[in-house]
Amino acid sequence: MPSLSTKPWTVAVVGATGAVGGTMIRVLLEREFPFGELRLLASARSAGRVVDVAGTKLPVLEATPEAFEGVDIALFSAGADTSKTLAPAAAERGTTVIDNSSAWRMDPAVPLVVSQVNPDDLEWHEGIIANPNCSTMQLVPVLMGLRDAVGIERVIVDTYQAVSGTGGRAIDELQGQLSAHAEGRPLEVSVYPHQIAFNALPQVDVFLDNGYTKEEWKLVNESRKILHLPDLRVSCTAVRIPVFVAHSEAVHVETREPITPERARTLFAAVPGVVVQDDPATSTYPLATEAAGSDDIFVGRIRQDASVDGGRGLAFWVVSDNLRKGAATNAVQLAELLVDRGWVRAAATRDAAGSPA
Ligand SMILES: NC(=O)c1ccc[n+]([C@@H]2O[C@H](COP(=O)([O-])OP(=O)(O)OC[C@H]3O[C@@H](n4cnc5c(N)ncnc54)[C@H](OP(=O)(O)O)[C@@H]3O)[C@@H](O)[C@H]2O)c1
Q1: Mind listing the pLDDT tens digit for each residue in 199-223?
Q2: Does residue 247 carry a catalytic annotation?
Q3: CB neighbour list of residue 25: distance below 8 Å, 6 or more residues apart
Q4: Which of 1, 83, 119, 242 could potentially form a cystine with 103 if both were Cys, beta carbons 3.0 to 4.6 Å apart?
Q5: pTM of the predicted model, to two decimals?
């Protein structure tokens, strides 16, 4: 009897023509995910396009409910509206959806998972699994190191987010504004409310009634759910900056027990996928330009927060590639975990050994 982990799975990428979808295809290939068929889906606008996948020309098909027939795992990255309608349709057909949008993240019946933080939550999925927002994704593995050792009381995060977090149109807009500036032409603004070139916009997504933006509030709620700390006190200011790839975050944490920067460095370095880069003497700290293209989360500038009494405050800087660990890589890592643990099928349709019941 062949082991489940060697079965060539049928995998679909929904949003295959987008910034995240394209990265998903690359990461599936790089990590040699065991797929027998890769189905590329997007909107009707892209149907008929051909994408070169490792030398094989694959057609882009329209994402319809029927397109999921025979698909084992679908990686969705086509916005919340598409996920709301198509993810349940896919799940009804026996497909397990790993969704990158905000559509399902806070649904109590849907696990929200970061591969190295709460992989066991995958076990109870019923066909839809949510991938966190990119700014949450790079934060929680680092916070996990502190939660487990000294407890966390309060977290304040200020983000410096790349335009690729908005998608392909925003990448084009920044590039267009840089070119226009260099050529002395007027800058065109359409994706963001203001010019993004040479600017810092303290608005990521729309404003909510409480004065926060949706992005800031996602980070608050998603961090609590993933870390299993429903009452954690979190505040965030999310800022869009003219960087193409990799989000940076200035983080201040108030811990329950005292902690030194030296101990924090050791704790952070022990978290899988986290790399400490911290040597002020040589100006060594995480940089967006170096994190782009990597699957790791980089942390540095680790120091005692002088505004918190009793050695219970830490400040640090976290950087990661928002398209890779912040989206595509974590989605593929979740798919790998499902295969390895025998949890590809929804929990209700699985027997105790993990095979379809
Ligand atoms: N970028 C990030 O850092 C990041 C991180 C985490 C999560 N996400 C989430 O991932 C999603 C996509 O982001 P992105 O940056 O890849 O955006 P993008 O570059 O704008 O790409 C959007 C993709 O969605 C497809 N799409 C749009 N409407 C569709 C529909 N009705 N049916 C099927 N496919 C449709 C597009 O296909 P067409 O080419 O046919 O229009 C395209 O492939 C968003 O939900 C975003 O919130 C992004």
Answers
A1: 999 999 999 999 999 999 999 999 9
A2: yes
A3: 13, 16, 38, 40, 51, 53
A4: 83
A5: 0.95
